[in-house]
Write a structure and sequence with these properties.
Order of helices and strands: EHHHHHEHEEEHEHEHE
Number of domains: 1
Number of strands: 8
Number of helices: 9
Helix content: 40-55%
CATH topology: Rossmann fold
Radius of gyration: 18 Å
CATH class: Alpha Beta
CATH superfamily: HAD superfamily/HAD-like
Length: 215
Amino acid sequence: MSRLVFFDLDGTISRRDTLLPYVTGFLLRRPWRAWRLLVLLPHLAAFVAGRGDRGILKGELVHAGMGGASADEVARWTEAFLPRLFARGLHPDAVAAIDAHRRAGDHLVLMSASVDLYVPEIARRLGFDETVCSGVRWQSGALDGHLATPNRRDEEKARCFREVAARHPGLPTVAYGNTESDLPHMRLADRAVMVNPSKTLRTRCEAVGIETVRW
């Protein structure tokens, strides 16, 4: 019987965060825009102090680093960014697991808090059937960058999990993640696999029956 399989992206499939390298790589090719990152400072300070919001900070990062770019500029940068990510930035064991699920006929969902400037293309190249990720705003054909959807993280990710699962009734569910923020949706899955957890997180996972692996 086929299964409904959810993979997180950053730290689960990729070795590390993808958004910051994506935005900074765009900026490195346009260094005259770097001053715009100064607007991030108050948001970053609030976040460090425990008062900030990850979704707002994410939107401000994209807005500051890439705001005003055309769709063609974004597409060209994505085409340049992804080959390097695929060459050096993915866990080989993650790619092997994705391939095994696809060969088994499972329905694959890439569910990430990262943004729709590049996550859907990663999903397409890896053979996923669906993508759930944070959407960004466009205005009159130019990238605004602030989030147009909720940040697909924590309980929002669990809500998306339920929504997708409801469209595939009867399919057993599997979820792969790598951080504590993935636990809300992973607890909903029939089988859950935590990738490269810390010692503390591994203990938490074992207590609730979540598998752990090293990739």
